[in-house]
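Input record (one chain):
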Amino acid sequence: MKSATNKYLLITALMMTSVSALALKNDTNQPIDIVSDNQSLDMENSVVTFTNNVVIKQGSILIKANKVIITRPPEKSNKKETVEAFGNPVTFHQLLDDGKPVDGKASKVHYDLGAEFLTLTGNAELKQLDSKINSEKITYDVKKQQLKANGSNKSRVKTVLIPTQLNKK
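The corresponding structure, as predicted from the sequence alone:
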């Protein structure tokens, strides 16, 4: 059971480090610390759930959520794990190799490890210093390093760029 839990914790770390391909290289080698008020493991369905005041730390990465669910597919399915985080909002913080912080938030964060695809939904925001993008939905293809933001009928995508901050180290 401990090795299964360790695998799920590693998956959580992968979700966090995939937010930015330029994240501190040392982050992925750091211990993963997950604290929550409750944790449950459904071994039959390969699901681990952390609830209430979930705080995940690994190196410079800090994620806070109300609930995190990690699902492992059947062994011979050739699929990989998925991670879902829920909150009011889910927040994350990470430092990049250039020392710049990246902060994000959304009502829901979904990460498919097989597709290496991250989706932030519900009042999604990505911010670096004073530059930021707000949208109902933000997706990030980790392999292609492509970010897309989509508005809704009620809101449009809003981007604020501060060129002097983006160019400084």
